Amino acid sequence: MSSVIDVPVGPQHPALKEPLNITCYVDGEQVVGAKLRIGYNHRGVEKAGEYQTYIQNLYIAERICGICGIVHAFDLAQATEHIIGKEIPRRADYLRTIGLELNRVHSHLLWLGVAAHEIGFDTLFMYVWRDREAVMDVIEEFTGNRVTYALMTIGGVRRDLPQEKAEKMLRVMDVLEEKVKKYKEMCLNERTIRMRCDGVGILREEDAIALCAVGPTTRASNVPFDVRADDPHAAYDEIPFKVITYDTCDVTARILVRIDETLESINIIREAVKKMPSGPIRVRLPRAVPAGEGVGRTEAPRGEVIHYLRSAGGERPFRWKVRAPTLANLLSIPVMLTSKGDYVVYIADVPIAFASIDPCLSCTDRAVKFVDVSSGKSWVWTFSQIKRMYWKDKPYWRERP
Amino acid sequence: MIRELIDILGTLLFPGFLFFAALGLFFEWIDRKFYAKLQNRVGPLYTGPWGLLQPLADFVKLMAKEDIVPEGVATPIFSSIPVFALALSLFATLFLPVCGPQGIVSFPGDVIVLAVVLTFLVILVFLAGLSSASRYPEVGSERAVLQLLGYEIPLVASVLGAAAVTIGLGGSLSIEGIVSAQQNWWGILGIQALGFAIFLLAAQAELERVPFDIPEAETEIVAGWATEYSGKKLAFLRLARDVELAFLCGLGATLFLGGPWPGPLVPGLGGVIASTILFVIKSIVVLLLLTVIRAAMSRLRIDQMVNFAWKYLVPLSIFQLLLAVVTPTMVRLLTL
C-alpha cells in the first residue's frame, strides 16, 4: 500500500518561527520528497535603501536580521568604504571583529537552544538561553544595545572599548567557555539527543559543494569554507583561528560545528582584546560617495553574507543587493528531506533537519514572483523589463533626488 | 436511604469526581512548577499563592473561549470525545483507594478493568484525530496507536506483576487485595523495582509526555491529534489529561508504594484523613519521578519508541512478570 499525502509545514507552524512553506510528500511516517516555497516576507529593504543616505542605510541594514544584524551593518560599511577606497583605522578593525564574534557567540547559543527545542529537549533550551544572557549583557555594555547594536559606521565604529570593559568581557568569556564545554559534553553524551540527530538531515560533501551551501552547514559536510579565513577582512588576518569541520554530514555535525565555533569565537575575542592597537576608532569620510561598485562580505553566524553596492555618485546608493546565507542553504533542504535508499527521513526529522541550517527567512526574502491568481500563471520581471516598462521616459543613470 | 446518599456524595465529591478534578489541577501545577525549577525558571507565579490557581485559570479561560468546529469533521464523534475522555478518566479514578483500603468501586478483577480503561482512552485519542479531518491530527492519531502497540503490553504486565505478587502471597486479584498485601511488605524494594520502573515509562507514554510525547509533538505536528480542538472541548480534553495524570500517579502509588497504608490503621475520621494525606503524598512522589523523566530527555521518534519498547521494555516486563509469579511461590515452598 503506497499512498502519498502532502503535509504542509508552514508558513504558519509551531516548528518554524519563519514564514516558509515546506510541502512534505509523506508515505506513512516517511518523507519521500519535499518542495520549498519562499517569498512570504518580502520587505523591500533594498528598495528602501535607494532612498536613504549611506549612513541611514547602515541602520536599515542592521534591521535585516534581528539576530545577526551587526553582520549586515558591517558588510554595508565595508562595501561603502570599498567604493570610497579608504582604509579605516586598525583599532576600528579590531573592534569590528570583537563585535562580529560576540554576535556569533550569541547567535550560535540561540541556535543551540532552538535546536534543543525542536527535538523536544526544553531543559537544554532553557539552560542555553539562560547562559546566552551573559553574552547579551556584554554586548549591551560594549555597544549600548542588546539587539540592534548600531556599532558600525562608515569609516570605523561608533564606540570604543575601554580597558575595564574589556577586562569584564574577558571574565565573562571565561565563564561562558566553561558552560559551552559543558553543553558540548551534554550533546555528545545524552543518548536521546544522539538518537534524534545522528544520521539525520544528511548533506554529503559533494552535494554541499554542488548546492553552494555556506557557513556551518557546509563545514559540517567537511568543506572547509569560511570567508574569515579565505578572504580575511577586519582583523581576521592577524588573529589565528581554526576553521572547524566535521565529516559526519548530519545534524550532530552541525551542532558540534557550531559549539566548537563558539569556543573558537571566544578565543578570537580574547586574542583581539589582547592585540588591539591604540589609536582612533574612526575616520571621517565624505557623505557623498563617488560613482562605482563595492562589495562587502563576511562570515555571518549562518554563513557568508554578501552586500553589493553600486553608486552613481552622490549621497544615496543606486542599487543595493543583499545575499543572506539562508538563501544559499535553502537549496540543500530538499536533499536533506528526501528519503533515498538506506537514508530514511521521518516526519519527526523535518523540523530539526530544517532548523539545522539555522534558517532566517526574513533576511532572505528578496525576490518577488508575480502570480495571476485567476489563471495560475506566474512570471518574474527582470530588471531590464522593469526599466523598459516604467523608466521609459526617465534617464537610466540619473541620480534620484 | 442515607447509605445511598453517602455513596452518591462520595462519587461526586470525595473521593470521587470533584476531588480528582481538583487533584488533577493541583498535580498539573506541581508538574509545571517542578519542571520549571528543574529548568531554572520560576513557572506559574501570579495566579493564586505561588501560582497555585494557574491550571484552574487556564481551564476557566478555555471554557470562555470561542469553540470552533472546523468544516468537514465528523461532528458527533469530534464533539463527544472530550466528554467521553473526561468521563472515562474520572471513572477510572473511582477504583483508587484514596481514603481507605478500597476505592468507591471494588470487586475481584478490577485491575483488569483499569487496564481496559487505559486502552480505551487511547482509542478515544485515535478517534479524535481521525474525526478531525485534518492532516496533523491524522498523523498524530496514527502515532498514538503505534505508540500504544509499544507500551500497552509493558503497562499491563507491570500492573499484573503487582497483582501476581499479591496472589502468590495468598491475596486476591483486586486493588484492595494488592494494597492490603503491601501493609507489611513493599515489593518495590525487591522484585518489584523493575516493574515500577517499567510502569513509570509506560505511564509517561500513556500520558504523552517527553520522551514519548510523539502523538502531540509540538514542533512536528502542531498539537497532534488535538490540533483542531478549541474552547470548551479543549478545556475538557486538558482536564481529562490532568485527571489521567492524577489517576496514573495514584495507580503507581497504589500498586507499588502501598497506597494509603498505614493510614487505614487509624480509627474513625482520623483514618480517612491520614489515608488521604498518605495517598496524595505517595502519588506526588510518583509525579515528581515522572517530571524528572520529562525534563531529562528529548523526544524520541515513533520508530525509535516502538523499537525501544519491543527490544527492551516488552522482554523486561515479561521477565518481571515471571519474577513476580515465581518468587512468592518459591518463598512459600521454601518456608513450608
How does this structure look, described?
The complex is a heterodimer of chains A (about 400) and B (about 325). Chain A has 16 helices and ten strands. Chain A has about 400 residues and is of the alpha+beta class. Chain A has a single domain, classed as Orthogonal Bundle (Cytochrome-c3 Hydrogenase, chain B). In chain A, the strands form four sheets. Chain A has a three-stranded antiparallel sheet. Chain A has a three-stranded antiparallel sheet with strand order 6-7-8. A two-stranded antiparallel sheet of chain A has the order 4-5. The radius of gyration of chain A is 22 Å and the shape is globular. With about 325 residues, chain B is mostly helical. Chain B has one domain. Chain B is about 70% helix and about 0% strand. The longest helix of chain B has about 35 residues, at about 135-170.
Describe the sheet with the most strands of chain A. Answer: 3 strands, antiparallel
Secondary-structure-based class of chain B equals mainly alpha
> Which series of helices and strands of chain B comes N to C?
HHHHHHHHHHHH
What is the domain total for the residues of chain A? 1
Care to count the β-strands of chain B? 0
Strand order of the largest sheet of chain A: 1-2-3
List SSEs of chain A in N-to-C order: EEEHHHHHEEHHHHHHEEEHHHHEEH
Low-confidence stretches of chain B: none
Roughly how much helix do the residues of chain B carry, as a percent range? 55-70%
Integer-rounded radius of gyration of chain B: 20 Å
First and last CA, distance of chain A: 66 Å
CATH domain class of chain A: Mainly Alpha
CATH topology of chain A: Cytochrome-c3 Hydrogenase, chain B
Give the overall shape of chain A: globular
The separation of the N and C termini of chain B measures 49 Å
- Structural class of the helix and strand makeup of chain A? alpha+beta
Shape of chain B from CA axes? globular
CATH architecture of chain A: Orthogonal Bundle
Give a quick account of the main beta sheet of chain B: strands, pairing sense, barrel closure.
none
